[in-house]
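Moderator note: this is an archived Q&A kept for reference. The question asked for a predicted structure of one protein chain; the sequence and the answer are reproduced below.
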Amino acid sequence: MKNQIDEIFHLLGNKSRRDILLALSDEPMYFNQISKKIGIGQQAMLRHMKELENAGFVSTYGEKSEFGAPERKYYHLDSSFNLSISLSEDAFSIDYDDAKISDKQVVNLSRGMYDQISNDPGLALDKLRSYLIEIDDTIENLQNDINNLKAMRQVLLQKLHKIGQDNFVHLERKIIYKMMRETPSTISELSHMIDENKSDVKHALDDLHSKINKGKMKTMVNDLTA
């Protein structure tokens, strides 16, 4: 997944490629359309489209011209994922979620919804606009809830780091911070997680054993050192 995230950052780090994806979010376009809309030369455009296509961000299909000209190649978006970056005084995380929706999910989510959309273009647009506004409002409310939870999480992390700084040495803190989020089953697994020598980790766990007198963390340390 790390390589996938690195590739996403590489692709989206270029403004022209972001503009291309934004342009294609409205509708498929052929090469000259995109080049004109983005305002870049065809050679640069060719390089960008090749990178986006190789990464699976876009794909192409052919469509016959109405005037008997050769078949025209259209580009369209062809990837689905969510990438969330969170940075605060006490945490940094990148969360990648493959957001592809199966045909079964599409049927379940849209059940009854399509039946309410009229065949009349005007009425259909009104209903679609109503649905989109409702969904966007729901997303905004959920995002506010997520932001509040992240703020609470930051407060707890600040407390955790304060306890760590006041009571434990560096390696002990690394062990504690890792075990707050994960549950390694062996010292070897823990050593691999924090990229530290197994012997050093064992000694640090022994020291933690004497410093932590009660609670679940005490039990977790005991399980590893037993």
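Archived answer notes: The two ends are 34 Å apart (CA to CA).
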